[in-house]
Amino acid sequence: MKLPCTTLLTDILGEMADNEAVVVRRLHDAIVAARHADGGWGYGADKAARLEPTSWALLALLDCGIRLPNSDLSGGVSSLSRWQQSNGLLSDAPHGMPNLAFNGLAALVLRRMQEQTVVNAPGDGHVETRLLEGIRATKGVRTGASTFNRQDNRLQGWPWVNRTFSWVEPTAWCLLALKKARRATSDGRFDARIDEGNRLLIDRCCREGGWNYGNSNMFGKELHPYVPTTAVALLALQDHRSAPEVSRSLRWIRENGNGESSGLALSLALILAHVYHEPNEGLERCLCDEIARKGSPANPATTAMALYALTGSHHAAAAVTI
Amino acid sequence: MRQQPSQSRPTRRQLLAAVPLTLLAACRRSPYNKADFVVAPQSTMALLPAASYSIDISNIISRGLDLLGLSVRGRRVLLKPNLVEYEAGMMINTNSMVIAAAIDALRRAGAGEVVVAEGPGHRRDTEYLLAASGLANLLQELRAPFVDLNLDDVRPTKLRSRFSGLEELSLPVEVLRSDFVVSMAKLKTHHWAGMTASMKNLFGVVPGAVYGWPKNFLHAHGIEECIIDLTATIRPAFTIVDAVVSMEGDGPIMGQPRNTGFLAMGTDLVAVDSTCARIIGLDPRKIGYLRVASQFLGNSEPGQIRQHGEPPTRFATTFDIVEPLRSLRLEGR
To answer: N or C: which end of chain A has fewer CB within 10 A?
Structure first.
């Protein structure tokens, strides 16, 4: 189903170069077409609604000028609340475990909904409150001193799934979610987790700057950073710009941000550039070229991510800005 | 980043290797139902020379299928390669030319459909991995579909053995609906499990969107225990191990390429992996998951394995391995 552009999206498209507007319009149509009847999004049009694509698509709906009727936004919120477990965390797979990285992302979406007050679905604020509590209460496992790498294993960030080790992406997304909520609500309960999350990310920064998936070194070898992990870690540490690890990593991603040709890497690097007010024309061009060359991003999650990134000059990536 | 086990339990491998299966069984409910697993007295496999990736690998795979008497006619085949990470010049992944050759060989053998499917266990950005490795272009040329198992729909699946203590896993629908799963592994040392080949390759079917990247959930439940449980549950019909150029040293990511010059194929993954272990100088009886798997999943001893093609001695060598794994070496190697 294709919906007409709203005035807002038309304005956004009007400010873009023709080729970029074509890409953005294509992404918009793809997101709308991939929407499930229940209001959620899957990793493919024929796949079940899942947390990550639904969260990115809702963010696109909220911030990219796509104003579907409120009932459709409520459908997305309903998907999130349907997945909420008794501990507040969201789990999208039957008998599945909550994926903490995507829970952090979902918390940012719910916060953005509150900020925009475009949805007044019953109980959506309650869903956010419970989710944040679930995130606050979850920690990666603490272990003893490592014999095979240089890092502080006492620090507890967030794991991908409960009762496993802390990794960069879930830590970054959950940390960012708590920081956003902390700013909005002045809720001091989050402070200890925020402090530990900050320290874990700083501890895991690669020697050359940037972040690998979890460790910065192993068996005496320094590990290399990646664009997506570095981008999300820098988003989470945007309030620590004077830290040497942040400066070093920002320098690394300036030099390497368009070095991984994929919708995921380029979109996250571009979102980061919006948040840090970095020059982003090169990244925009790369992302547009990548999408134009491949026809479409890999899946609806990446499609929505790319749409959010390419319209960043309009919304300034406010949902992920502290 | 390295895949690492739950760091609080670093001795699972030693534990599994040291404790006889009978004792495990006596201590708790049997981890599998014996009636579910019938192992033939003898397994058959093929070791075929492949000096480089530029030769006609498709014909080698066809020859392997013929030697093993396998029919794939009309089958819905799922090729599960090992795609982990991309580093230029490194031999981390199943080579794209071997994957393309397998697609061609299986199609020529009459497969109804051939799908390539993988859920990279390290790199979350599958789109980048496919492009950087060159596989995306090859698959496009061959018009072969790729399914990212990390993002596929999932179905709760009861495990057929429970060495990990897990009763079920959410597994990708694409794997569950295939009727001929082929584990297309890369032969590498593995700094936690000793060696990775056709059995360890199955970690890639566990979906990252549910369990995260890397598959740390499996590590927390014991890498070797999960290797056994996944193999027992998925029961691939066939394996092709890419040992044209393998990886020695600090595998599975940061090791060094080593020319080994062969493809190993078979229907018994335990037999194929045990043979590969012996070829690179490791004793399968000292690799915990192979030792346990040889009790109920397949054959491991040379006398139980009928070799087609070349004898293992033709390719025998001794791989460099990280210090903690040196105890896994064959006597005298």
So the answer is: N
